[in-house]
Specification:
mainly alpha, about 65% helix, about 0% strand
Length: about 425
């Protein structure tokens, strides 16, 4: 597909086509990714030992990590093993203390931000908008809180973002060989399988990736969008066998292999019978678990939630991003089926939200909104792509970032468990 045709059909692509091979631009992008990673890691680790004791659901997963290290019975068989194994590695490395429990989550939070920046750049083909998406993701509140607690959700989201990055890179980057595209796609499948091995919710994102790949392959040839045709051409180059292997076989293999260390720790055989038995228990547990009605909420209330979940570091989504992101998604929905980035983002958000409408689990909790909320910053940046660079002399990107930063600053003291008088430095919750 000639670059000129893609330029005509996709705003912002011309800039990328002119400079994507520039060593200076590659260095700028890599430097930005590294800076985002180190700055966010420092932010997530600041006072990560507050509170000094286990809180919320940390005890379930930290106790499971301790049991793994001691070759003791698994006290948390109702969840897949990978996230708990990662916590165990962190405890083994940094000690059985608050930093040891939570440092690996902070690391994955940082990796999630870096992956979001790179993924947004591939989707938007615009450095400034990708950086805006990264800033909005950092200020999301969800990412900050979930990166500082020893729970499985940050591992789920981290692997999901890098899986999406691998898939998008395989079909978007130019000047790659077919084998290089296959390696990226295989890496994507492994990452998505690992996401499912942290929490089963990863299967929804995997399903969207499979759907998009099949749609590009079978329907994309009739598209009038040159970028969609280019994506399809690269999928054809990869080949159907490799596509199915990467997105069907490898996720299952990666998921299954995460049970090998657990079986070894429990002195149980690693075979199909054990895998089926362990996963059947997970299904039955979540189908019948009573849950905690005192902190439960309806899934459709999460999008506009105002009050924080006090027991979980006063978690509430950044209002500027949550509500502005919904408007951005509505804008993106207008180009569903005609634009790959718009369609992809809307499907990812809906799949990660609407799964809770069909789940057999009796009680749902606000932090389950975390995966879906992570797409709102990128969706906002995508919607901003069609706005003028300046409105009345002001950059819309800057307005969104400043508004989000103000909300984040207001919530920061509570999210970090600061004590008086700093807990109410910018105001207290009523």
């Amino acid at each position: 597909m000639p670059t000129s045709n893609i330029v005509d059909s996709y705003p912002g692509y011309n800039t990328l086509a002119l400079i994507q091979d520039s060593e200076e631009f590659v260095l700028k992008t890599a430097s930005t990714a590294l800076a985002l990673g180190f700055i966010s890691l420092a932010l997530f680790l600041w006072k990560v030992n507050n509170p000094p004791a286990l809180y919320y659901d940390e005890s379930q997963y930290v106790d499971a990590a301790r049991a793994f290290l001691a070759d003791a019975p698994n006290p948390n068989p109702e969840a897949p093993p990978l996230g708990k194994l990662l916590v165990a590695v962190s405890i083994k490395t940094l000690g059985d203390n608050p930093v040891g429990w939570r440092a690996i989550g902070a690391t994955f939070g940082s990796l999630t931000l870096v992956g979001t920046f790179l993924w947004a750049f591939l989707l938007l083909h615009d450095y400034a908008l990708a950086f805006t998406a990264a800033l909005l993701t950092l200020l999301n509140n969800f990412l900050f809180v979930m990166s500082r607690i020893a729970m499985m959700d940050i591992f789920l989201v981290g692997f999901l973002i890098w899986g999406l990055l691998g898939f998008t890179a395989a079909i978007d980057l130019e000047h790659l060989t077919a084998n290089q595209r296959r390696v990226l796609l295989f890496s994507s499948g492994i990452a998505l399988g690992c996401a499912c091995a942290c929490k089963w919710n990863g299967v929804d994102t995997l399903a969207v990736v499979v759907l998009m790949a099949l749609a590009l392959f079978w329907i994309g040839k009739r598209s009038a969008n040159a970028l969609v045709l280019a994506h399809r051409t690269r999928l054809v180059e990869i080949g159907i066998p490799s596509l199915l292997g990467a997105l069907i076989v490898l996720p299952v293999v990666a998921y299954s292999l995460t049970y090998w260390p657990l079986c070894r720790s429990l002195h149980r055989p690693f075979n199909l019978h054990e895998l089926v038995a362990m996963n059947t228990f997970i299904w039955r547990f979540h189908h019948h678990v009573p849950g905690n009605p005192a902190i439960a909420s309806k899934w459709y209330s999460w999008m506009l939630q105002v009050s924080p979940q006090r027991a979980l570091s006063y978690l509430v989504g950044n209002w500027a991003i949550m509500w502005g992101g919904l408007l951005a998604l509505a804008f993106c929905a207008r180009r569903m089926g005609r634009s790959f980035p718009h369609t992809f983002l809307v499907l990812l958000y809906l799949a990660n939200l609407l799964q809770w409408a069909a789940t057999p689990q009796k009680y749902l909790y606000y932090y389950y909104y975390f995966p879906a909320s992570m797409f709102l910053g990128v969706a906002t940046a995508l919607a901003l792509q069609d706005l003028p660079q300046r409105v009345l002399g002001i950059s819309p990107k800057l307005v969104f970032v400043i508004a989000a930063a103000c909300v984040f600053a207001f919530c920061f003291a509570h999210m970090t468990h600061l004590e008086a008088p700093y807990d109410c430095a910018l105001g207290c919750w009523p």
